[in-house]
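1st attempt posting a full record on here, be nice pls
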Amino acid sequence: MLLAINANNTNVKFAVYDGEKPVGDWRIKTEVGRTADQYVVWLNQLMTMAGLNLKQIDAAIIASVVPHSLFDLTKLCEHHLKTRPLVVGDPSVKLGIQVKMDIPSATVGADRLANAVGGHITYKRPLIVVDFGTATTFDVADGAGNYLGGAISPGINLSVEILHSATAMLPRIAVERPSRVIGKSTTEAMQSGIFWGYVGLVEGMVQRIASEFVSDLAVIATGGLAPLFVGVTPVLHHLDPDITMRGLVEIYRRNKA
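the predicted structure (as tokens):
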């Protein structure tokens, strides 16, 4: 079985696949100091509860945008699972797509590359992947799946936290869809500004990206807060929470074929 790991700035997601079939997935908060020993104890408990066994894992692939976590995640695979993981971004790992950046040596987040691969094998058309994570990212792939670039904006929760911490009178709020745009209290006004402000951000960015592209684009929403926005604006065509992990499984397949 394959263990796919996606480590971002908020959570680390682990998913186990039997072939291309997902048989379990779990998340843990990203903490730089978490050790390989801590990971394996946590993962072993959850796999056991799901009727799985660590010994069933014979392959692994990692996408990480947290360099300090990558060391211990790699050690988890090599020391505890007895398998050497593929690491997206390593020059030896084939993506099966071209990364068409102006600066060849420019680094692109491993999760963003996995999104391009996962999106292409599902939708097989030019696309924008809008990932509502710690950062809100917009990534563009052409009809062949090649990664063309994108844009990075502050994430929604990050904006909420900064709004609270950088002001004397504004409280910390939860991100939710307000019933109206004109807030009748400070909390309502903040919720409106955050929520509808991000709707405006997404709509504006998608429109501007589309104006630079010659083909119609499918727009895919993913990430923890994506369900909050899908259905609110017509520019988001599909909700796809599994696009990153699906991309990792496909990258593994392309390297082991």
